[in-house]
TrEMBL record, chains A, B:
SMART domains: HTH_ARSR. Residues 6-99 form the HTH arsR-type domain. GO terms for molecular function: DNA binding; DNA-binding transcription factor activity. Keywords: DNA-binding, Transcription, Transcription regulation. The keyword DNA-binding applies. NCBIfam families: HTH_metalloreg. This is Transcriptional regulator.
Length: 109, 109
């Protein structure tokens, strides 16, 4: 079973977070996790090659954005939202706010 | 005299902004402009080669972060702060808040 390592959120460099979010696919993963909660890799892969997915999730983990846990044969990814909010206040709101998802605009007052 | 082009802030991709901020030196330039106001390239270069500076400022301009204007022989760089705040609410605060400058912690209540 694969084991994943995750940095302390306080050890994460700001530039590493911005680098992780500079790729459209990784940014989309983070947005999806923020809106839908924990998901396995299959739900997020969009049929991309396994090696590509491994790379993107490693970058996201190393930047402190995502925590991956194994549950049986599944790899469940969770946004480290509360920790991120403490370390980088406003970051998650910024990520979600820059392109407002359709379901939010439909219910906006 | 060199002329610079700047994208409409609404045409800027979120990923491009994050990419521009993923480099420690570029992030430092943005923080410095946010705290000190418009500055020429010499004040920001820290003795880096001209070609390196040209590259970094081009990335910052293309990401909509910085506007460069020529005044005589000087190239004055300004953070597009109001436009950024409208397009990416919270971004500048996030950039400044991730490492609080000493002068801000001294005056914080």
């Amino acid at each position: 079973m694969e084991r994943y390592t995750h940095p302390s959120i306080d050890a994460v460099e700001t530039c590493a977070v911005f680098h992780a979010l500079s790729d459209p696919f990784r940014l989309d993963i983070v947005r999806t996790l923020a809106r839908r909660g924990p998901l396995n890799c299959a739900a997020l892969s969009c049929d991309r090659p396994r090696s590509t997915m491994s790379h993107h999730f490693r970058v996201l983990r190393e930047a402190g954005l995502v925590r991956t846990a194994t549950q049986g044969t599944e790899h469940i990814n969770t946004l480290r939202q509360d920790e991120l909010e403490r370390r980088f206040p406003g970051l998650v709101a910024l990520i979600l706010g820059t392109t407002v998802p359709p379901e939010l605009t439909e219910t906006a007052s």
